[in-house]
Amino acid sequence: MDKIDKNLMDEIQNSNENTLRVIVQLNEPFNEEEDKRIVKSLGGEFLFDLPIINSYVAKLSKSAIKMLALNKRVKRIFLDEKISIT
Prior knowledge:
By secondary structure, the chain is α+β, with helices and mostly antiparallel strands.
């Protein structure tokens, strides 16, 4: 599970939410058809791509996140956290 960021792993272990919004960073170039298919096959929802960082955002169950981490296309998976600039 080294592809799953520590903050996301903490959220998987401690959150009462079953579905989490994540950022999936890829090893390979983003492929809309393939990446949407992978997310859908895991019962998730593809939200949008982030081409500047070769990533996409999706909503996935905790178990689906762990399954996605096994995919060779995936480099890292992060929790899509809200940030603020103060």
